[in-house]
Design a protein that fits this description.
The protein is of the alpha/beta class and 304 residues long. Helices cover 35% and strands 19% of the residues. Strand 6, helix 5 and strand 7 form a beta-alpha-beta unit. It is globular and about 65 Å long.
Length: 304
């Protein structure tokens, strides 16, 4: 009788363990990663841009399902990637990624490149601004307020002769570097609000990221000044595919990058959506080269 009880209890315990394993998803037949029911999750800004449908359809034909997850700003994608709510993201340049890693202690890395998107200074036509010469002494110019695009915008204003800065040789500039003797006053706002600021007649011009120029019914040709995308300084603004370092050798995220790098329709859509302003660099930089540039930028930020 005692032996029967022990045997019976063993069977009950075994069944309980099997049930627990099933409830926690540890079954013998989990949903395959990259399946339609368990797609690779990619975080982007402007998920309606045509390249993302091209990517989804093209990879599905290769047997890999991806889900494009939209974000409306530049601050949420990396934390989501860090928490493994995303498998990868594609929205940021290397300088932004370096700042994020340095400030948070995270270890996100680039696996591939897409393009460099030169930012531009756009005039407020409603305020009768047509050129740099129309921007008066003491006028207000709006820039994005995230760390790297803010610095990038200030460099552009220095090149335009609109602001003077202390430590002009520094690559990282903040509004604190802008001198009172500057021609204009600078106001920092969220990147997605910079374009909308041109509805305010008290604003003479705004530095706007390519992602948002359409929001203000602008075209790239409307810019009165643009970055030069082909100089060494521009390397820090290469847009990249980013993953957690843990997944650097993951075959599925690498398949996404390799497919995108070699898809003319995907790359042409990026160019078209930028109204021809993007400089496509997908095949010009290996993951190792991008990671080397990132390491240099992170060291630079540690010395600032």
């Amino acid at each position: 009788m005692q032996m029967f009880k022990k045997g019976f209890l063993s069977v009950i315990l075994a069944l309980a363990l099997v049930s627990a394993a099933s409830l926690t998803g540890c079954s013998d037949n989990p949903i395959p990663r990259g399946d339609l029911n368990n797609p690779i999750k990619i975080g982007v800004v402007k998920s309606t841009d045509s390249q993302w449908k091209i990517l989804q359809d093209g990879l599905l034909q290769e047997g890999l399902a991806v889900q494009i997850i939209n974000f409306s700003d530049y601050t949420s994608e990396n934390p989501a990637l860090s928490r493994q709510e995303l498998d990868m993201n594609e929205f940021q340049h290397l300088d932004y990624l370096a700042s994020y890693n340095y400030e948070t202690g995270d270890n996100l890395i680039p696996l591939g490149a897409t393009a460099i998107f030169p930012i531009g200074l756009y005039p407020n036509k409603a305020a009768s601004i047509q050129s740099l010469d129309d921007i008066k002494e003491g006028a207000t110019v709006v820039i994005p307020n995230d760390d790297t695009n803010q610095s990038r915008a200030i460099h552009l204003l220095v090149a335009a002769g609109l602001v003077k800065v202390s430590n002009s040789g520094k690559s990282i500039l903040t509004p604190n570097n802008i001198l009172e003797s500057s021609k204009v006053k600078v106001r920092s706002v969220q990147a997605n609000q910079a374009a909308h600021s041109l509805s305010d007649k008290s604003v003479s011009a705004a530095v706007i990221n390519n992602d948002y120029i359409k929001d203000a019914n602008l075209e790239p040709k409307d810019a009165i000044l643009k970055e030069k995308a082909d100089d060494e300084f521009a390397q820090r603004f290469i847009n990249v595919w980013a993953v957690k370092k843990l997944y650097a050798n993951d075959p599925l995220v690498n398949k996404v990058v390799n497919w995108a790098n070699n898809s003319s329709p995907f790359l042409n859509a990026i160019l078209e959506n930028s109204a021809g302003t993007a400089q496509i660099v997908a095949k010009d930089y290996t993951a190792e080269k991008l990671q080397s540039i990132l390491a240099t930028l992170q060291d630079e930020k540690a010395q600032e």
